[in-house]
Amino acid sequence: MSDPLRIALAGLGTVGTGVIELLETNRSTIERRAGRALQIVAVNARDRTRDRGVDLSPFAWVDDMQAMAARADVDVVLELVGGSDGPALTLARAALDEGKAFVTANKAMIAHHGLSLAEQAALRGVPLKFEAAVAGGIPVVKGLREGAAANRIERIYGILNGTCNYILSEMERTGADFDAMLAEAQAKGFAEADPTFDIEGVDAAHKLAILSAIGFGARVDFANVDATGIGEVRAADITQAGTLGYVVRLVGIASIDESDGTPALLQRVRPCLVARGHPLAAVTGPTNAVVAEGNFSGRLLFQGAGAGAGPTASAVVADLIDIARGDLGAPFSVPVEELETFPPADPGNRIGRDYIRFTVTDRPGVLAEITAAMRDAEVSIESLIQRGRDHEGGEVLVAMVTHEGPERCVTKALELLDGSPSLTAPPLVMPILKD
Amino acid sequence: MSDPLRIALAGLGTVGTGVIELLETNRSTIERRAGRALQIVAVNARDRTRDRGVDLSPFAWVDDMQAMAARADVDVVLELVGGSDGPALTLARAALDEGKAFVTANKAMIAHHGLSLAEQAALRGVPLKFEAAVAGGIPVVKGLREGAAANRIERIYGILNGTCNYILSEMERTGADFDAMLAEAQAKGFAEADPTFDIEGVDAAHKLAILSAIGFGARVDFANVDATGIGEVRAADITQAGTLGYVVRLVGIASIDESDGTPALLQRVRPCLVARGHPLAAVTGPTNAVVAEGNFSGRLLFQGAGAGAGPTASAVVADLIDIARGDLGAPFSVPVEELETFPPADPGNRIGRDYIRFTVTDRPGVLAEITAAMRDAEVSIESLIQRGRDHEGGEVLVAMVTHEGPERCVTKALELLDGSPSLTAPPLVMPILKD
User: What's the pTM?
Assistant: First the structure.
């Protein structure tokens, strides 16, 4: 058996301690699969005195996290600190600079700086790995990078944020409104005290940017992920969707749009209507699920726990085992210099169906005004539901589902209605996920 | 860029021609991901004259399949001929003997001879790969071997046969009986003219034996997979299951049983009752799905097309790309000499719930006889349904669901009833899948 793979671990939160526990609990299994031992040699965290429920005495304590990169007794730096920039990024650059392998669960950092880190890793010929950055314990980075490697990927989409999925599926189950379910999610530990990144779709957008880079062999382009969160989804929307045979899920979708002649990349995170028979409709609670559609494989679904100490540690250690086994594959599936640059796609090109919900004043002629705007923008309405007064006041909900058509027509219709005194709030548009 | 990976392809059926089409269609994607070209240099099939819709002129035609192994211009032998023994096995042995990498989609051969082939591959230090042998296009061999590598796997189960799943889900949808749906499956190309291997669970057993070897780091033990097919499942069983909140699926399950002190391996294929909320219940048609439960990852689900030229070719070429990238990992996740030998588990140890259906004569006292046997064997009945006369004659169906208990009690109860003139056919027992 070869020498152990020596690891410096920065960050001893739940995931960091989870990794220590996993390496201890599954030691013999891992050694046999990796062909060598995985050995933590040094650890760092902000507070040395805190009791984390794991024995840190076998490891060297390093006060200055950045000093880990230069240690001669370290082969891999494992970063579980978080934050897109700051100390995590400094450590990543220093570690790669020193020719160390680098493993992270940091989706924000990879979404923002993954490309330049991959360039640095390629220059030094060392691995850069981030399985845990996407969809927690689900081996979907490997699934896309290697399992589906023979395919031209046509579309990638999935439920990438467990907090939002918990809230939406609980809203569906209980009929409660968003605010109540967010509070419940926070009480149960499924949402953070400041849930902004989750509920506004930023976290899902980080993961989507990483997935689309791998799936399409594209340069990571987080800046062009267009994200809308779930804060505007009301209990009434979920009820209406249910009546029509759909559930509401926050879905990240990436696809290549060739309708303007040159391939362009559409990346968006949106609350969507998902038909009840679709596998994503069955995904409830904090579970994540990713679908990749390959031109030969067809639809592949990967599902599992999207967060949590155990699942995230499982993904982190899978990366460490790969490194121990000598896997030097390109972080984004093809060598970084061969990644393609796709311009962002015009979302108006999208051909699909939409759910549109208006909140309007309860007076005559409002419905006529809305349907006239739809007609003028050439949006064809498949079904229209006018719902009685909301308990909140004189407000009435008007929900509709469009026939398949270009998204730009829907946008145009909403522009025509913009500023209308009949509308009491901005309309909510939710795309209907294409099967 | 390195030299191309040179492939000899034996077998030009739908999968073989699918591989040729895939390598042509996705050539540039594959080259970038593999870091080199994948090039078929030689092909072989029984009939040279048949038009397969692909251009074979770039490849050397080899009349004697076995001659492929010795060709100096070949790095990998790809076997898509099929059959557990015979020419496929001879070719595998010859190829490994010559120090060639060997890739196959042949589940029967790997289930029967995978262990000795892995030994041969280890001796020569060459890769042996068979992603396509399990669950078609789903990268579940890689998912288990690498993606879940950090975990002690506690249970593996899944829908491993598309033919059976098509028949069962169509029986559910239409209310028709097994024979009618088998005929329909054959007409639609989802079942073969001789469907024995599929409907008797042998095909699923092959795949399960491979999965459990990988998941548990166990020596492949196909002989101890206990398989029951779906031929005895009646429309009435599916209706009863539905009433109770379940669907019927043919499930392969493998787990480690430690209840007798030493770890033993339980491997079985059974029609099972699956609760409607479980992800496997949503798997309909010829789709496959595999669940692996890791001690840190929790439940991982891999789902996709279980067969077909495109998906199978996708899995085959993923193996070829891995080989091109220099992946020399152990075929069954740990070096073959370190694979453990587990004795077969006593299925009587299983603690669970069961659905039991009797077909009985329509006369007084039959129900009392059955329930007395249950009482004497200490089987606790959760619910019991007596269904009116079947249209087939004076036969009556009695279905029940047991409380959780040892399977040996159910077996004992059936022994007590064995030979009873009240029973017109052997009872059908379907385990209820534990969540």
Answer: 0.96
